[in-house]
Amino acid sequence: MYLIRLLLFITYMSAPLLVNASPPPVKDLNSKVLVETLINTPNTLISEHVQENSAFYGLASYYNNINYFIVEKDGLRRLDESEAFEINRAQWLAVVGRFNVLLIKANGLSMNLDKSKLIINNPQILIQSDTIVSVVTKAELSSIAIELDQIRYAHLWSPFSWMAKVVELSLVTINTDIVSNWGLAIVIFSVLLKLLLLPVGMMTVSFQRKVSQVQARLAPRLAEIKINYDGEEAHNHLMAAHKELRVTPFYTLKPMLGSFIQIPIMIAVFNALGEMPQLDGQLLLWIDNLAYPDVVGHLPFYIPMFGDTLSILPFVMTVVTLFSTVIFQNRHALKVEVIRQKRNLYLMAIAFFVLFYPFPAVMVLYWTLTNLLQTIQQQIIRI
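Above: the chain's sequence. Below: its structure in token form.
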């Protein structure tokens, strides 16, 4: 029920944004230079204007990819890396990078892909007067043709794609109407989202408290059963012990309900932050570009998953996470259970450091802020 209310609230808050958001000016759709380059060296055009200009490593290498779509009003279709195709008058070919998109609209243009390399079979079609060739950012797509907006977050399941667009519009509104600074907009957005999800956090803490209390009451019985019984008899006594406390053996899964609510939102936020062209070139403190890792130096060697760059923000994120783990307390859990929980949190801190290190600074910044806000929440609402 809370998830439904949350989605309705987000829809209500984003409705004015969807109506009032003014698109950026459209670039020249008939650039002779673009057409000539497309005719002579199409893949050079793609590598210079669409391909990500900074190599990402690890899981972030996804941003190095180029995807090809045929787009029309009824939907879009992703092209295979080796496929022949032809576009008609109602279709667009979209060559999609992380931030930029090459748009081609030319009736009867025949092409094929060879291991993701574009080959144009009848380039003379491109000199027709109604041909459109343009390179635009993803933020400009809907201002050219409404059907092109399908390209944005096309890799996500449609509800997640919709949520990512709401996140992007929310960030644009905060930056435009409140602070005029993208770094501060991320901070404000993180705080507002945490406040919006506060009931979920309180629900999770309540469930964790109850689970810890039940585990403390069950522990002596479980130890006794383990010593005195085995096989089916042990199982029967175990079920009886749970029944006496009016819980099922799956009661420990209850705190995960909060995660099920927050994970879709987290997916939407990270996808929006990773693909918003508005963040390219934006500064914050020592970070000279929020859209890329906060590189402060280079290593003389390459490390798998990390590359050869040295960044500060992932270390800051990990320190915040470890601090949160050190001060973590569960007053209702057994000592051995608290030790186990802290061990898992330490392992998660290491895992997230490895995961986030090669990602754009804005994503690491958001996760750091989220952890910091979570630490504050834990001190206010104790388990």
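The radius of gyration is 26 Å.
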